[in-house]
Amino acid sequence: MRISRKLRECTGFEWDEHNSEKIWSQHDVVPSECEQAYFNKPFIVSYDQRHSQTEDRYFALGHTDMKRLLFVVFTIRNKLIRVISARDMTTREQRIYTKHEK
Protein backbone atom coordinates (compact mmCIF):
# COMPACT_ATOMS: atom_id res chain seq x y z
CA MET A 1 0.00 0.00 0.00
CA ARG A 2 1.34 3.45 -0.88
CA ILE A 3 2.31 5.73 1.99
CA SER A 4 -0.06 8.49 0.85
CA ARG A 5 -2.99 6.09 1.22
CA LYS A 6 -1.71 4.85 4.58
CA LEU A 7 -1.47 8.43 5.83
CA ARG A 8 -4.98 9.28 4.63
CA GLU A 9 -6.29 6.29 6.58
CA CYS A 10 -4.64 7.42 9.83
CA THR A 11 -6.99 8.59 12.54
CA GLY A 12 -4.54 10.40 14.80
CA PHE A 13 -1.23 10.28 16.60
CA GLU A 14 0.23 7.98 19.23
CA TRP A 15 2.93 9.43 21.45
CA ASP A 16 5.50 7.46 23.38
CA GLU A 17 6.43 9.46 26.50
CA HIS A 18 10.12 8.58 26.12
CA ASN A 19 10.23 9.71 22.48
CA SER A 20 8.42 12.98 23.11
CA GLU A 21 10.78 13.79 26.01
CA LYS A 22 13.81 12.86 23.91
CA ILE A 23 12.66 15.00 20.97
CA TRP A 24 12.17 17.95 23.31
CA SER A 25 15.43 17.55 25.25
CA GLN A 26 17.60 16.93 22.18
CA HIS A 27 15.95 19.09 19.53
CA ASP A 28 13.52 21.50 21.28
CA VAL A 29 10.58 20.15 19.27
CA VAL A 30 7.20 19.60 20.94
CA PRO A 31 4.60 17.03 19.82
CA SER A 32 2.16 19.66 18.53
CA GLU A 33 4.83 20.97 16.12
CA CYS A 34 5.34 17.47 14.72
CA GLU A 35 1.61 17.05 14.24
CA GLN A 36 1.28 20.42 12.48
CA ALA A 37 3.85 19.36 9.90
CA TYR A 38 1.52 16.57 8.72
CA PHE A 39 -1.23 19.03 7.84
CA ASN A 40 0.79 21.76 6.11
CA LYS A 41 1.75 21.56 2.45
CA PRO A 42 4.11 20.53 1.10
CA PHE A 43 4.60 17.43 3.21
CA ILE A 44 7.24 15.23 1.60
CA VAL A 45 7.41 11.59 2.73
CA SER A 46 9.90 8.85 1.84
CA TYR A 47 10.25 5.24 2.91
CA ASP A 48 13.25 4.67 5.19
CA GLN A 49 14.49 1.30 3.99
CA ARG A 50 17.65 1.42 6.09
CA HIS A 51 15.72 1.63 9.39
CA SER A 52 12.76 -0.59 8.48
CA GLN A 53 14.02 -3.95 9.74
CA THR A 54 11.28 -4.58 12.34
CA GLU A 55 8.56 -2.22 11.04
CA ASP A 56 8.06 0.20 8.16
CA ARG A 57 9.59 3.57 8.95
CA TYR A 58 9.27 6.81 7.05
CA PHE A 59 10.90 10.19 7.12
CA ALA A 60 9.25 13.41 6.17
CA LEU A 61 9.98 17.06 5.52
CA GLY A 62 7.32 19.50 6.62
CA HIS A 63 6.70 22.82 8.35
CA THR A 64 4.82 23.97 11.41
CA ASP A 65 2.16 26.67 11.48
CA MET A 66 4.95 29.09 12.46
CA LYS A 67 6.97 27.96 9.36
CA ARG A 68 9.56 26.00 11.37
CA LEU A 69 11.09 23.43 8.99
CA LEU A 70 11.14 19.92 10.47
CA PHE A 71 12.57 16.53 9.59
CA VAL A 72 10.32 13.88 11.16
CA VAL A 73 10.80 10.11 11.45
CA PHE A 74 7.65 8.06 12.04
CA THR A 75 5.92 4.74 11.72
CA ILE A 76 2.25 3.84 11.43
CA ARG A 77 0.69 1.48 13.97
CA ASN A 78 -3.00 0.60 13.96
CA LYS A 79 -3.87 3.66 11.84
CA LEU A 80 -1.99 5.97 14.22
CA ILE A 81 1.09 7.99 13.34
CA ARG A 82 3.81 7.33 15.90
CA VAL A 83 6.59 9.91 15.78
CA ILE A 84 9.98 8.42 16.55
CA SER A 85 12.16 11.49 16.14
CA ALA A 86 11.99 15.10 14.94
CA ARG A 87 14.48 17.89 14.47
CA ASP A 88 15.09 21.02 12.43
CA MET A 89 15.94 20.37 8.79
CA THR A 90 19.54 20.51 7.69
CA THR A 91 20.55 23.01 4.99
CA ARG A 92 20.48 20.21 2.38
CA GLU A 93 16.97 19.14 3.46
CA GLN A 94 15.80 22.76 3.33
CA ARG A 95 16.97 23.01 -0.29
CA ILE A 96 15.02 19.88 -1.19
CA TYR A 97 11.94 21.12 0.64
CA THR A 98 11.92 24.61 -0.90
CA LYS A 99 12.01 23.05 -4.39
CA HIS A 100 8.67 21.40 -3.58
CA GLU A 101 7.16 24.63 -2.21
CA LYS A 102 7.18 26.27 -5.64
Helix and strand topology:
Layout: H1 3-9, E1 12-14, H2 17-27, H3 31-39, E2 44-47, E3 58-63, E4 69-77, E5 80-88, H4 91-101
Parallel strand pairs: 1-5
Antiparallel strand pairs: 2-3, 3-4, 4-5
**Ranges with pLDDT <50 over ≥5 residues?**
none
The number of strands is 5
**Cα-to-Cα separation, first versus last residue:** 28 Å
Compute the number of helices: 4
CATH topology (level 3) name:
Nuclear Transport Factor 2, Chain: A
The proportion of residues in beta strands is 25-35%
Text of the CATH class? Alpha Beta
> What is Rg?
13 Å
Q: Give the overall average pLDDT.
A: 92
* Largest β sheet strand count, sense and barrel closure: 5 strands, mixed
Structural class: alpha+beta
- The CATH architecture category equals Roll
How do the strands of the widest beta sheet line up side by side?
1-5-4-3-2
Number of domains: 1
- Proportion of residues in helical segments: 25-40%
In the CATH hierarchy, what is the superfamily?
Ribonuclease toxin, BrnT, of type II toxin-antitoxin system
The ordered H/E elements are HEHHEEEEH
Molecular shape: globular
